[in-house]
Amino acid sequence: MREYAFELRLCAHLEGAGSVPGVGGVAGVVARQLGTSVHAAGGRIVDTVCVLPGPSFDERVTLTSETVPPAVLDADVPVGEYERVTRVSDGPPERARAVAEHGAEAGFLDVTRRDGQQVVRQVARYPDWVGGLVGVENKPDLGRPGDLELQMRHDASLSVLDYAVLATESHVTRAHLNRLPEAVGVWRVDFDRDDPVEVVREPEPLDSTGPGLEVLDEHTARTDVRPVTADEKARQRRRVAERAYGKGWRTFDLPPCARATAGDGGAGDATLPYCEHFERVVDPASECGEECPGFVDADPPPADLDAERERRTAWQRESGGRRRQAGLDQF
Description:
Elements: H1 3-16, E1 29-35, E2 45-53, H2 57-63, H3 70-74, E3 83-84, H4 93-105, E4 109-114, E5 117-122, E6 130-138, H5 148-158, E7 163-168, H6 174-178, E8 185-189, E9 197-201, E10 212-218, E11 223-228, H7 230-247, E12 260-261, E13 274-275, E14 280-281, H8 284-287, H9 305-312
């Protein structure tokens, strides 16, 4: 199976599963393609992230459906009383106003004018909603591992995640296990089974609260690393969780093709971009269009991905009275 289809089907399964295999606890949020690096921007992109619910998960659900941008959470914005926008964020006034705007667009800040000044406050106290982060690297074919060993060492050494897992369709040998850090769990996945995930090795908890080492690069005679403080790691964990909440895993658009369906990719009632011409799940961004030999111009198949996410999870698309707006945050 191609990695893209494997990834989408696994996301759909984890979203509907009773618990995260080998870890326990339900996946309150499932998202894909999230950056976990602290120093190397975009350096490590984890295929799938499950956010386990913390004690105030329900409060996060009602707060806003959007990602709250990191700069907004770093600003010193009061909850009850208004404060002048230029006093709550470091840097020039233009940046402070931009931070307040982004927070208001996300539904987390209330911005207004009083006595000729722009003022701001939080609509509610930011909740303690994250119970844990489980990162999954998807390698359906271990015969084509790519940078798997370096990626898994990065996750185990940095420990922004609470658990790191490798998911594969391949038969897992002792040699495969020996190449991975001992803390990394391994899932063997077969979507033809009623319960598709077999836990070959349970993941061990990582030290997500202490300092870590970020693996930057690997050479023949050395590996380049950089220390990460506990505070830096905590901010990155919050950023990953927030990005996961606002983004989810349904980041695709169904292709405008008569042979595309919202269809049967083997994910139960979850919508996947299925192609009747190739008889498989496809990546609309890279595989679909006029150059495809099976392309037949038509409207995209009807689907409401936000409504589906709302039906299958606790996420509420109208929380905070705001709707998603593009460009507010990146990886």
